[in-house]
């Protein structure tokens, strides 16, 4: 039998980390790259040229900015107590539920970029014709040319977006939703510059200057109308109901007044021997007094409801509107050249170092 070979013991010894070794390694890398300084310079210049071309081809966008504030209607009591408690960091109004609303708090951040608001906005006409903001958006981004090659567009027709969506095809609905998604995700933003204040800022960044301004201003108009109608819907319904009732009772009262007057005229010529002659007059006068009482109460309630409606109607005030010319966003040539040269040069240096390690 051959003697058994002794087992070899392997031990893993972790090399100690040293800043000096790391610095020396980097010095060696720099010294190695210095040998290729001319090629690195040429590659950097080529990268700068590519950056300049990128800056020239980079699409120009325009930013429309609008600032607004929402003033809630007159709410219930507790305003003084809430104000005092707010000095100590307590939100009594929020606990009481008195600050709820569609646009109360940060709900405006979601409402303005909702599909309903954006759809109503971009389907408004650009001017007095049928050409809508959605058509303008598609032309500004040259989408209609790309849509001609869609498989669903078998007739190769130019797709338009009229205001009336009842006759929309499935393709039109899909493309309209795609426009809304692009706007909500990339081009429209809503922010609150200061958390302690009630100011909101709406920004729209698009490739067409007029389109950005119109979308920004009309989106606020659609949102404000929706907010006010929702906030005052119950009171407006009550006012309309009382107004209709008051008109109806008023017409009945007018007819009853003429009937009572006619009954009094008949009573003057009636024979005193008939004891029931004045009954008709008395009935007419009684009905007239009842209608007068009902009419006065309805008018009183109507005026009270109108006063409450005025108090509860919020104020949607625009502070700063987008004005032409809008802010132009474009890549500067100096930035493009610098970024292109640095990026291409860094990648080339990294390639040289990797190639060096593979040769070792």
Beta-strand percentage range:
5-15%
Q: Segments where pLDDT lies below 50 for 5+ residues?
A: 76-100
The major sheet is characterized as:
5 strands, antiparallel
Structural class: alpha+beta
Q: Estimate the helix proportion, in percent.
A: 55-70%
Extended strand count: 5
Tell me the number of helical segments per DSSP (H or I, 4 or more residues long).
13
Compute the gyration radius: what is it? Answer: 39 Å
The run of helices and strands is HHEHHHHHHHEEHHHEEH
Task: Describe the protein in words.
The chain has 360 residues and is α+β, with helices and mostly antiparallel strands. The chain folds into three domains: 22-58 and 333-359, no CATH class; 61-232 and 315-329, 2-Layer Sandwich (Bacterial polysaccharide co-polymerase-like); 235-312. 60% of the residues lie in helices and 9% in strands. The protein has 13 helices and five strands. The protein has helices at residues 19-34, 37-57, 79-86, 92-96, 107-111, 115-122, 133-140, 143-147, 170-187, 209-231, 233-269, 279-312, 333-359, and strands at 61-71, 188-191, 199-206, 315-320, 327-329. Strands 1, 2, 3, 4 and 5 form a five-stranded antiparallel β-sheet that branches. Helix 2 runs antiparallel to helix 13, helix 6 crosses helix 10 and helix 11 (233-269) packs antiparallel against helix 12.
How are the SSEs ordered, and which strands pair?
Layout (H helix, E strand, L loop, with lengths): L18 H16 L2 H21 L3 E11 L7 H8 L5 H5 L10 H5 L3 H8 L10 H8 L2 H5 L22 H18 E4 L7 E8 L2 H23 L1 H37 L9 H34 L2 E6 L6 E3 L3 H27 L1
Antiparallel strand pairs: 1-3, 1-4, 1-5, 2-3
């Amino acid at each position: 039998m051959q003697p058994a070979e002794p087992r070899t013991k392997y031990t893993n010894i972790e090399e100690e980390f040293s800043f000096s070794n790391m610095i020396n390694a980097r010095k060696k890398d720099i010294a190695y790259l210095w040998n290729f300084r001319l090629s690195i310079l040429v590659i950097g210049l080529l990268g700068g040229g590519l950056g300049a071309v990128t800056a020239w081809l980079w699409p120009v966008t325009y930013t429309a900015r609008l600032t607004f504030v929402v003033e809630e209607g007159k709410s219930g009591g507790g305003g003084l107590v809430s104000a005092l408690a707010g000095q100590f960091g307590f939100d009594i109004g929020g606990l009481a539920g008195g600050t709820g609303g569609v646009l109360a708090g940060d709900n405006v951040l979601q409402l303005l970029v909702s599909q309903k608001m954006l759809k109503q906005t971009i389907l408004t006409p650009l001017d007095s014709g049928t050409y809508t903001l959605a058509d303008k958006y598609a032309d500004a981004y040259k989408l209609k040319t790309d849509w001609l090659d869609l498989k669903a567009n078998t007739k190769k027709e130019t797709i338009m977006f009229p205001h009336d969506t009842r006759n929309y095809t499935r393709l039109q609905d899909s493309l309209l939703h795609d426009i809304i998604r692009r706007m909500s995700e990339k081009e429209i933003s809503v922010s609150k510059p200061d958390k302690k204040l009630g100011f909101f800022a709406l920004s729209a960044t698009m490739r067409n200057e007029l389109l950005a301004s119109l979308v920004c201003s009309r989106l606020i108009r659609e949102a404000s109308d929706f907010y006010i109608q929702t906030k005052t819907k119950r009171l407006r319904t009550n006012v309309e109901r009382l107004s209709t009732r008051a008109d109806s009772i008023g017409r009945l009262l007018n007819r009853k007044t003429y009937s009572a007057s006619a009954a009094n005229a008949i009573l003057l010529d009636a024979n005193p021997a008939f004891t029931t002659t004045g009954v008709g007059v008395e009935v007419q006068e009684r009905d007239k007094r009842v209608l007068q009482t009902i009419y006065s109460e309805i008018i009183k309630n109507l005026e009270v409801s109108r006063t409450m409606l005025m108090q509860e109607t919020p104020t949607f005030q625009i502070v700063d509107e987008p004005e032409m010319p809008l802010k132009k966003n474009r890549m500067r040539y100096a930035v493009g050249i610098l970024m292109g040269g640095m990026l291409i040069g860094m990648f080339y240096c990294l390639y040289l170092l990797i190639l060096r390690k593979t040769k070792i």
